[in-house]
């Protein structure tokens, strides 16, 4: 049995217990100080580490339990944003950039430093891609004096993210993953219409170029991007098979491209026939939106479907998405734990079958 086959990882977030959700929101309101919150979160994150190690994962995160959301973390730790003035879907508000952005210390490297002290497993650290930062946190009413266009903000994010990736590497992370849900959401014509995207090919190429600039020339750390149809309250924000974006994926220079395939909204596996050569496939093989916990055999079946298109030694297993990309996303921690365990048991079956 080859341990290197079918490695298992997470996409990032685990559902946060109520006490963690409260701490993050109380910290934001100033009810508790950052130091007070950190002390409690350190204890809680030790439990997140044990949960992932117990499930059998080869690579873990801190559950993103220090963050309000996967994308807002950039605005929390970089100067130039005003919180919650940018209305988003489902009643969730985002920050908007109001001044030229400036780094104000670590965005995520401190998360890795803590993990390094408390686990011997491989460590993954996630950052939002420059494209999603521009999409989520630029608003024409608030941002034009700082950045005349969304694209100008996106481009200014690149050097800050590059410095952070180096810091994450120095802190001991094995993988940095850039989260980029909008690229895959663009396959959905209703999503494009809703978001006013009239030139999708230009946008897709811009996204790819920004990702390449962010990771180009950085060595000593594995690079990945995560694509998905995004989700809130167990519903996806977009849907559709990935054919439209496959030519763009071939232009992106990262080690792993992680995509969701367990959910039916991704439209089946056939688009994998166009998946680029020379890149690992991060295969979403557990459906975080479905309350039913998969059996290991269900997960094995999903991986074997992907193996019709992708060599076994290029496949990494993970859930479709982070279980709770934001504090506000209500998900179940016990359910997530059981799903991760089933996925790791499936990996063991696959290794014995194909190793
Ligand atoms: Zn996702």
Describe the structure.
The model has no long low-confidence stretch (mean pLDDT 96). The protein has a single domain (18-354), classed as Alpha-Beta Barrel (TIM Barrel). It has 12 helices and 11 strands. The relative contact order is 0.15. The protein has helices at 18-29, 34-55, 72-77, 109-118, 130-137, 150-171, 181-185, 189-194, 200-215, 246-249, 296-306, 333-354, and strands at residues 59-60, 78-87, 93-103, 122-128, 175-179, 222-226, 231-232, 235-236, 256-260, 280-286, 315-319. It has a 7-stranded parallel β-sheet with strand order 1-4-5-6-9-10-11. Strands 2-3 form a two-stranded antiparallel sheet. Strands 7-8 form a two-stranded antiparallel sheet. Helix 1 (18-29) runs antiparallel to helix 2 (34-55), helix 2 runs parallel beside helix 12 and helix 5 (130-137) crosses helix 6 (150-171). Helix content is 41%, strand content 17%. With 355 residues, the protein is α/β, with parallel strands linked by helices. The N and C termini lie close together (5 Å). Helix 11 (296-306) links the parallel strand 10 (280-286) and strand 11. Bound molecules: zinc ion. Residues 11, 181, 226, 228, 321-322 line the site of zinc ion.
Note the topology.
Elements: H1 18-29, H2 34-55, E1 59-60, H3 72-77, E2 78-87, E3 93-103, H4 109-118, E4 122-128, H5 130-137, H6 150-171, E5 175-179, H7 181-185, H8 189-194, H9 200-215, E6 222-226, E7 231-232, E8 235-236, H10 246-249, E9 256-260, E10 280-286, H11 296-306, E11 315-319, H12 333-354
Parallel strand pairs: 1-4, 4-5, 5-6, 6-9, 9-10, 10-11
Antiparallel strand pairs: 2-3, 7-8
Helix pairs in contact: 1-2, 2-12, 4-6, 5-6, 6-9, 11-12
This protein binds zinc ion (ZN).
